[in-house]
Amino acid sequence: MKNFLLFLSFIFVCNVVIAQDEATTSVEIDSLYKEDQFYLGLTYNLLGNKPKDVSQSQISLGFHFGFIKDMPINKNRNVSIGVGVGYSTNNFNNNLFINENENGTSTYQVIDDDIGNYSKNKLAQHLVEIPIEFRWRTSTPERYKFWRIYTGFKLGYLLSSTTKFNGDFGDFKSRNNSDFNDFQYGLSLSAGYNTWNIYIYYGLNAIFNNNAMLNNKHIDMNAIKIGLMFYIL
Questions:
Q1: What pLDDT does residue 168 have?
Q2: Cα(223)–Cα(61) distance, integer angstroms
Q3: What is the DSSP string of the chain?
Q4: N or C: lower Cβ tally within 10 Å for the chain?
Q5: Outer membrane protein beta-barrel domain location, by residue (predicted)?
Q6: pLDDT score of 172 more than 70
Q7: Contacts of 27 (CB under 8 A, 6+ apart)
Q8: Per-residue pLDDT averaged across 53-75, rounded?
Q9: Residue ranges of the domains in the chain?
């Protein structure tokens, strides 16, 4: 239900901004225009490079917003470099049980019959991010609806994390697991026309650092995010 309400809220905000955009009257033409933009995104989150028997369950969502400064690099100002700052919160529902020990270390186990049934097992992360983009678009000083392809690199710093488990075995919750990588980075792509844009992020490094082991092997899972990105001038 929370994920559904979040999605409805996202659609509502987008429709409001679309209506405002369509109602905009003529404005003074700016030959030195830039596409400085706020962005708002909703993604379906996947785990790549999963260890054997690790799987995802339920819907895992991510919510992203921030601001990007646009710096045109050609005369037509339809090619630019964008640099910004933003915030990202991500959930990953899965069957990897993370148990924090009394000494502060964590152990990892794939949920099986020994643990029993469970209603929730997820990890959540909150990051501040710096997107760096190479941007191409068909915009002009008079054209506000255009095609765009923005591709780039996104660096994230982990602000906080939470892992939760609710099931027959008991209820467990831990915060700021030291086994998560503080810095997480990857490649990003936004492409579309006008308001709606397909967004893809592929993490280049693992979510966990070298301390996280499952069956004596490092957990190399990375984040993959697929969804929609909305830009507001």
A1: 81
A2: 12
A3: -HHHHHHHHHHHHHHHHHHHHHT-------TT----EEEEEEEEEEEESPPTT--B-S--EEEEEEEEEEEE-STTS-EEEEEEEEEEEEEEEBSEEEEE-TTS-EEEEE--TTT--EEEEEEEEEEEEEEEEEEEE---SS--S-EEEEEEEEEEEEEEEEEEEEETTEEEEEES-TTB-SEEEEEEEEEEETTEEEEEEEESS-SB-TT-EETTEE---EEEEEEEEEEE-
A4: N
A5: 23-209
A6: yes
A7: none
A8: 94
A9: 35-232
Q: Say how many residues make up the chain.
A: 233
Q: How far are the Cα atoms of 47, 159, 185, 200 from residue 223, in angstroms, in the given order?
A: 5, 16, 9, 11
**Confidence at residue 210, expressed as pLDDT on a 0 to 100 scale:** 93
Give CA separation, 76 vs 33, 72, 113, 126, in Å.
10, 8, 63, 38
Q: Which single residue is written with the structure tokens 């999605």?
A: 7
pLDDT tens readout for residues 178-217: 999 999 999 999 999 988 899 999 999 999 999 999 999 9
Tell me the pLDDT of the chain averaged across its residues. Answer: 87
What tens digit of pLDDT does each residue of 121-161 get? Answer: 999 999 999 999 999 999 887 777 889 999 999 999 999 99
Going from the C-alpha of 111 to that of each of 57, 61, 108, 136, the distances in angstroms are 12, 21, 9, 46
